[in-house]
Amino acid sequence: MLNLYPxxxxxxxxxxxxLKYPASAICAPLLTKTGDCLGILTIVSxxxxxxxxxxxxxxxxxxxxxxxxxxxxxxxxxxxxxxxxIIKKLSLVSLSGKGLPEITVTLSKLVxxxxxxxxxxxDLLSFSSLEAKTLAEALQKDESFFVKEDKVRQLPIELEGxxxxxxxxxxxxxxxxxxxxxxFSDSSDELDPLDLFAVxxxxxxxxxxxxxxxxxxxxxFKFEGYLLEKLIQxxxxxxxxxxxxxxGLTTRRTFVSAFIQLIDPMTSFSRLSSRKKPFxxxxxxxxxxxxxxxxxxxxxxxxxxxFIANTNCSAEEFQKDIESFLQELLHESxxxxxxxxxxxxxxxxxxxxxxxxxATDAKSCVKFLQASREKQSIMSFxxxxxxxxxxxxxxxxxxxxxxxxxxxLLQHDEEHGTELVDTLKIFLECNQSATKTAKLSYVHLNTxxxxxxxxxxxxxxxxxxxxxxxELQLAIYMHxxxxxx
Length: 485
Fold this sequence. Notes:
Blueprint: H1 6-16, E1 24-31, E2 37-45, H2 54-95, H3 99-111, E3 114-119, E4 124-127, H4 130-140, E5 153-159, E6 162-173, E7 176-186, H5 193-232, H6 241-246, E8 255-263, H7 269-289, E9 293-299, E10 302-308, H8 315-335, E11 340-349, H9 355-371, E12 378-380, H10 381-384, H11 387-391, H12 395-416, H13 420-429, H14 434-441, H15 445-459, H16 466-484
Parallel strand pairs: 11-12
Antiparallel strand pairs: 1-2, 3-4, 3-7, 5-6, 6-7, 8-10, 8-11, 9-10
Helix pairs in contact: 2-3, 2-5, 3-5, 7-8, 12-16, 13-15, 14-15
């Protein structure tokens, strides 16, 4: 009764006559094919002479079935008309090339609600107004709202001190979630059901626009990757001055090559390929927010990177920025269940002719990480140190050299539980200073002197200097390297 027009209420009151209670009544539910109840069709008699019978009920049920068909057809027509209207207007904006921000504003005006768009990383891409931006930023503080689901979600959420009904519409492309179209409504003014259906259908416009942006960005990275490949192949002469200027390689800068090897031993090649696409989008996202210029060349599971330092950036700061970039990329990738990887950072250089050596250094780091039993995933060429000399040698030859040079000392440590090899290593690294060795070993100076006498006796070397010192130190590093494998 509450939703009747005043004139209908008047008709109803007139039909009551003198009776306050109905003499007879029949009703039939308005049921859809799926079992949903749209309402109830009711006929009430306030005339004592009119009593409904079973045949009247069957007739009413027939009317109810026809009414359901009429209601659903009307609703379908309204939904289609509203959807077509919204999609048409959004398409016109999209075709005009005004981009995602203008499409977002247009949808907001059509549904009279604040609208924003997030990408798959919950980064804010566009918003319809400053109010929408404020609400979106408040929403970003809790990533639990960003759930990768295929269905539309409606949640009551308190934002900026007020309750809102927030609608999340998944934006999908190529069977993967690429973003969320989000509509904010006051708790007292929910989104109209027709608009709800229409917005759900209109997500395709946003998907196409986002894919166009991604394609443009991907083309730029591919072009830069093409130039990077030329540099790695030592074909810089094939690159024009204009192309070099476009990527900022004409001025004297500090460069560092890096190499990433994607790994996922539990995943088939087909699944690895499917995870590679979102990983690439994550990489592009990281590059866009990075403080230095960066070129990237992707080749299946191998990624070559060229970091270009900003002017007035010290070597130490540049190195830290590169390490932070790779660590953040690894953290975000594993957190999102994408891909793990090994990363090597090459030596810095200032002439592009040296890019090959830096790239080789970076690959050497990855090669060591792959062979190492340690859990380290990122290594710089400086950390690799002497180990790079051992990577290209046969392990059997390395073991033979270690056994020949340090074998007796290693055997003594194993049989007597001593630490002579460690003591010798510290002693050599301290420029043969027994005092410094004692301090670093946290033992008395006399203990170190006794150990050194024992070492010389076991090795049958009265003195340790010159060639003997170099050979012993090399053998110790080889031993450490072999133990890490």
